[in-house]
Write a structure and sequence with these properties.
The protein is mainly alpha-helical. The chain has 8 helices and 4 strands; from the N terminus they run αβαβααβααβαα.
Length: 219
């Protein structure tokens, strides 16, 4: 859970299905570390059983505008956003994150992992596609002791994967997500205020506009 719009709605969706939820957040050297504070706020508001922050440093690899000094793209059109994999892509990020989630799930004796990936209104990230999730799930059931011994079968849930950003906003409101606690911006100012022009801000703005709902962050 990053504390963003999608992951917060995903957490609420898991709660609606009566799961006892454990939230996993990553401090991976991202330039928008303010999202860690948002994740803590959302986790508390949605009453998770436990919230774990894992510190890893993906800055050692670089090659992403989120973890090095590259400029974050601003003011791009929808066509430009979806044209190719952007410089905000962090190499293998979801694979790293899901691997940690899988390890924690096994120690918790949990068989269900939720992740808020989306294959419609997204920025072209290859690790948000359904075929990627399906492949990781197959791997998970080959790689864990609990699955190999037949004690569990890992299921990766993606409740938002075929929803538009507007539909995610509507679902989040229905589930009682306080959007004022969330953070979406890739390049906030020193005070943590969103830039309003990066891809993530623009997709968020589009979602609230199309949903006909006012964004409490003031977009």
């Amino acid at each position: 859970m990053s504390g963003g719009l999608d992951s917060s709605t995903c957490l609420a969706a898991a709660g609606r299905e009566s799961f006892e939820c454990s939230a996993l957040t990553f401090d991976y050297g991202q330039r928008h570390r303010v999202e860690l504070q948002a994740a803590a706020r959302v986790a508390q508001s949605l009453c998770v059983a436990r919230h774990l922050v894992v510190r890893i440093d993906l800055r050692v690899f670089g090659h992403s505008a989120l973890t090095d000094d590259s400029a974050v793209p601003k003011g791009r059109s929808e066509a430009e956003i979806s044209a190719k994999i952007p410089v905000t892509y962090v190499p293998a990020r979801n694979t790293v994150f899901l691997s940690y989630a899988l390890a924690w799930a096994e120690t918790l004796e949990a068989s269900d992992i939720f992740i808020g990936v989306n294959a419609l209104d997204y920025s072209g990230y290859p690790d948000c596609r359904p075929e990627y999730i399906e492949a990781f799930e197959r791997m998970a059931n080959l790689a864990t002791k609990a699955a190999v011994e037949g004690r569990t079968r890992i299921k990766i849930h993606t409740p938002l994967i075929w929803l538009s950003k507007a539909e995610i906003v509507k679902l989040g409101r229905e589930l009682g997500v306080d959007f004022g606690l969330t953070h979406s911006c890739y390049d906030p100012d020193p005070a943590g205020r969103p830039c309003g022009a990066c891809d993530s801000c623009l997709l968020r703005k589009k979602g609230f506009a199309e949903a006909g709902i006012k964004d409490p962050l003031g977009f």
